[in-house]
Amino acid sequence: MINKAIDNLRYRIINRYVGCLRDIKVDSHLREQLKWSDNNKITGQIAYSIHNIADFTDEAFILRELEEHAKNLKNNLLPELERMRLDTRWFTEYYEELADVNNLLDDFNVL
């Protein structure tokens, strides 16, 4: 059985990413801001994270994937969003997500 805190975090992440994909689809101003390559980077990162967090039931594996996810956020996605200077809630939400993931990993002594 997966710890409830891990399960809640991974589903919050997935729901956030589904919301980001929906934003890209429905917000014409946002789509205009995103170059094709930026859109692909964001969509690819979202898909990668959902795939690696969503469907697994092994708690240790999920914790390792969350650790990788935190590194990806810190080293790849957040710098890209900062570079693009998007006027969206994404930037704040991704920082909050990074803090949430790091707190959970700290609780499980993974960091």
Described by its quaternary structure, the protein is single chain
Portion of residues in beta strands equals: under 5%
Biggest sheet details: none
Which range best describes the helical content: under 10%, 10-25%, 25-40%, 40-55%, 55-70% or over 70%? over 70%
What coarse outline follows from CA principal-axis ratios?
elongated
Please provide the count of β strands: 0
Whole-Å distance between the termini?
22 Å
Structural class: mainly alpha
Gyration radius over CA: 14 Å
Uncertain spans? none
Mean pLDDT: 78
Number of helices: 5
Series of H and E elements: HHHHH
Q: Could you walk me through the main structural features you see in this protein, from its secondary elements to its overall organization?
A:
By secondary structure, this protein is mostly helical. 83% of the residues lie in helices and 0% in strands. It has 5 helices and no strands. Helix 1 runs antiparallel to helix 5 (90-107), helix 3 runs antiparallel to helix 4 and helix 4 runs antiparallel to helix 5 (90-107). It is elongated and about 40 Å long.
